[in-house]
Amino acid sequence: MQIQRAAADDLPSILHLQRRAYQTEAELYGDPNLPPLRQTAAELLAEFAGRCFFKIAERGQLVGSVRCWLEANTVHIERLIVLPEWQGKGLGTALLARAERCFAEASYAELFTGHRSERNLRLYHRLGYREVRRQALSPHLTLVFLRKDLSPTPS
């Protein structure tokens, strides 16, 4: 497994991966119109200009991706996606760790997930993320924002 920086020509595959990965979230929330499922190729290309994208490919197939950007001293991580059949193999953890290291000057990492996404919440808590706030988007979906201190711990 090797994590690489994604290039613009990877975007169609990333968009396809994103749609497959978010199908389970759409089913969980009973909402086939989640933003990751509606994102267009043009929107993804515009996003690519201002973010770092990483990917994992296995046997020539894109199986995971994540994107991040720096604001002040915080790396914002989003769209951590792994194909359902590849989940549970450590790819999400590896992608998240790579995104956390993307900007050496970052003191914190922040991300969000839906309140019913228990598997995601367990992973993030296990990796040191703590809930900082919630934002209701609809009667069926509340976003849970989590933050992790990236400062080195004193020895």
Helix content: 25-40%
Q: Distance between the terminal alpha carbons, to the nearest Å?
A: 31 Å
Strands side by side in the biggest sheet: 1-2-3-4-5-7-6
CATH fold call of the domain at 3-109: Aminopeptidase
Beta content comes to 35-45%
- The second-level CATH architecture of the domain at 3-109 is 3-Layer(aba) Sandwich
Task: Give the number of helices.
Answer: 6
Instruction: Please state the CA-atom Rg, rounded to the nearest Å.
Output: 15 Å
User: How would a crystallographer describe the biggest sheet?
Assistant: 7 strands, mixed
- Under CATH at level 1, the class of the domain at 3-109 stands as Alpha Beta
Task: Name the helix and strand elements from N-terminus to C-terminus, one letter apiece.
Answer: EHHHHEEEHEHEE
The low-confidence runs, each spanning 5 or more residues with pLDDT under 50, are none
Shape: globular
Structural class, from helix and strand content?
Answer: alpha+beta
Mean pLDDT: 94
CATH superfamily of the domain at 3-109: Gcn5-related N-acetyltransferase (GNAT)
